[in-house]
Amino acid sequence: MTHRSANIGKWFPLAAGLLLLLGGCGQSDTTPTKIVPTTGSILIDSEPDSLDGPWVLAGPENLTVSGRGDTTLAGFVPGTYTLTWGPVEDWITPFTQQRELAAGGEARFGGDYTGENPFLGLEFGTDATLEVVTWNVEHFAKKGLVTVDMVARAILTMDVDIVALQEIEDSGYFRDLDDRLVGWTGVRATSASYNINLAYLYREGGDWVMDSVGEILTGYSREFPRAPFVMEGRFKGVPIVVIDNHFKCCGDNFINGDEWDEEVRRRDACILLDQYVQTNYPDKKVIIVGDMNDSLTDPSDRNVFNVFLDNPANWRFVDMDIAEGPSGGWSYPGWPSHLDHILINAALFSAADGPAAAVLVVPLFENYPNNWWGYDRDISDHLPVALKLIP
């Protein structure tokens, strides 16, 4: 990393000193005073290095620092610092970031300048509709800030209201993602094994108002290795419940008598969800989403979703046409299958049948550098599935 100079509008010097009291015969008769740091350092990392991206740092007491490229700044007082990246011709400017600096600590800012937005043309939302997206962003963030920037850009381009996420492993990168989405709020569960947590991002200040969020069915780890994550809110005053899930993966595509069989665990998870909604939300409009790790179109004797499919008066998978369609439209292209689903209850059937409604696996890879290979490398092995309707 090459470090470059910065222009400082107001500088906080690092005041440090050490007093040694020496006794006779060269021996010290006092203990040296321990110096407690009162300032910290700020590290700025601009990518690609050859671009020397410009930036402006703002901090306490009207501090302003400007510079270019990778830089380390020492001697800054604790407080809140905001770094704004400057434009570079023919490059997309990274998002503004905010960090807290503690005494003796470091605050790190990273910005990745990228080329043309690869997701242009994939706008989905409208002012009139509620949009809910489910997206497994594999091992987030698998390519660090590159993944963070691309996921943020994709969400803003899709122009949706709620994004239910799976596999949010790194809480720091999730905060970075939340920081980049101005006007949005992120909330992440914390109980999942191996930190493969569920999360929500939702837009604030519009028609969606979030009332509460939390985990349910936490005592059923066999059925739910990641406890379902529920968000309750209102869209234009209409109460809506969204339940995010990430079912157990893998298996042999058969349901056997072993309670730890993967298909049995997914089947039993569906049964518990059905019971929970019927008991707790009998009069609410409910949307169940997530990486459910199984196909909707398996034969009945091997289908983990029978509790829903056998009750069409109360439940509907709005992505069934996608599941029954060509593999090119599925959510898990690497091993062609459709594993990510959106399920609604009867209270939303009329909305799903309305002229404004639509369901889509969003093909984020189509214009991404190196297409599917590049998308899989930088972002995820799953594609988002999106629903819009007027509830």
Describe what this molecule looks like in 3D.
- With 391 residues, the protein is of the alpha+beta class.
- It has two domains: 6-111, Carboxypeptidase-like, regulatory domain (Immunoglobulin-like, Sandwich), CATH 2.60.40; 130-389, Deoxyribonuclease I, Chain A (4-Layer Sandwich), CATH 3.60.10.10.
- Helix content is 16%, strand content 32%.
- The chain has seven helices and 20 strands.
- The strands form four sheets. It has a six-stranded mixed sheet, with helices on one face. It has a six-stranded mixed sheet with strand order 13-14-15-16-18-17, with no helix packed on it. The chain has a five-stranded antiparallel sheet with strand order 1-4-3-6-7.
- Helix 1 (145-158) links the parallel strand 9 and strand 10.
- The longest helix is centred in the C-terminal third of the chain and has 19 residues, at 262-280.
- Mean pLDDT is 90; it is low at 1-5 and 8-28.
Per-chain topology:
Layout: E1 6-8, E2 40-47, E3 54-59, E4 63-68, E5 71-76, E6 79-85, E7 97-101, E8 106-112, E9 130-140, H1 145-158, E10 162-168, H2 171-180, E11 184-188, E12 197-203, E13 208-215, E14 229-235, E15 238-246, H3 262-280, E16 285-291, H4 306-309, E17 315-317, H5 320-323, E18 340-345, H6 349-352, E19 358-361, H7 371-378, E20 385-389
Parallel strand pairs: 2-8, 9-10, 15-16
Antiparallel strand pairs: 1-4, 2-5, 3-4, 3-6, 6-7, 9-20, 10-12, 11-12, 13-14, 14-15, 16-18, 17-18, 19-20
Helix pairs in contact: 1-2
